[in-house]
Amino acid sequence: MKTDAITRNYLSDPAVxxxxxxxxxHGGRQRIRPEQLEERDTAKIALPYGxxxxxxxxxxxxxxxxLYASKTDGETEYVLYGIESQSQVHYAAAVKNNLYxxxxxxxxxxxxxRSHRHAMKQKKKDGSADAAEEQKKPxxxxxxxxxxxxxxxxxxxxxxxxxxxxxxxxxxxxxxMMEIKDPKIRSFINDYRVHLIAPxxxxxxxxxxxxTSLREVLLFIKYSKxxxxxxxxxxxxxxxxxxxxxxxxxxxxxxxxxxxxxEEEEEVVDMCKAIQDMREEERRIGEENGELKKAQEAARxxxxxxxxxxxxxxxxxxxxxxxxQWLEI
Length: 329
Fold this sequence. Notes:
The chain contains 14 helices and 9 strands. The chain has helices spanning 3-11, 14-26, 93-126, 131-134, 140-145, 183-186, 204-207, 214-222, 227-236, 238-241, 246-256, 271-304, 309-316, 320-327, and strands at residues 37-39, 43-46, 58-61, 64-72, 75-86, 156-162, 195-197, 244-245, 268-269. The strands form 3 sheets. Strands 1-4-5-6-7 form a 5-stranded mixed β-sheet, sandwiched between helices. It has a two-stranded antiparallel ribbon with strand order 2-3. Strands 8-9 form a two-stranded antiparallel ribbon. Strand 6, helix 6 (183-186) and strand 7 form a beta-alpha-beta unit. The longest helix has 34 residues, at 93-126. It is elongated, with a radius of gyration of 30 Å.
């Protein structure tokens, strides 16, 4: 399975998804509860105007998108959160995410217009509109746009997670992708900021604000290129690393290209043991490769001294045909 598919599967977990936004928006305070999250369709189709008013279908996909509902002053507000996972730096992220959000808002306008059209058709069909209902008829502007004056858009917030031990060196806003010399022109540009979680650029105390296994995932990724520091992290947080959910371990293995030894059917993985087993296996393979190189070198030396092939093979302990291949004879 590809890294993007593995990270997407992991982030689709409501607990992990809520953890991302509880950290980014609420500083780690548990305001968004997983059970409040409702699945949303990740395929969005907008219909912007094209040449001469033609309608052009545009389809884009988000990695994960959910709807979070919160109650304020006794009324329900629906807030839309999107999330993007990136295993490599995307230097046009500001444009891409801006497009996603714009398409999301265009879809909401279309959904509102569709809802109003349906309601008006139903009202006409029923033929039971009273005086109060008559006052709710759209004015010319509302009828033209399909979006009524009292309608409201659901806010869309996109957060990107860089699943990489490398630092993000791309633009963090739309304006950083431009070279604007005239400050007056700059004041007319609507900027768009990239909301980013990049473990390599986060202090450990920030990563510790996550409450799910995402904490261990980000810590491991951050120090995956520094074995000494990684050993310290594993020791400091040993209790949690010894009982890590398999999907989190899948992410770690895929992102860091670690050949971790664990059974795929395991729901909980002892990461400390998996790493120890992996290192022992790497050491064993290294030793075997070292012994093999020694045998190949000895075979070559003896053969160059005039020892016959069969005797050389017996001396190094390998089959004649194997030694023949080594010596290319």
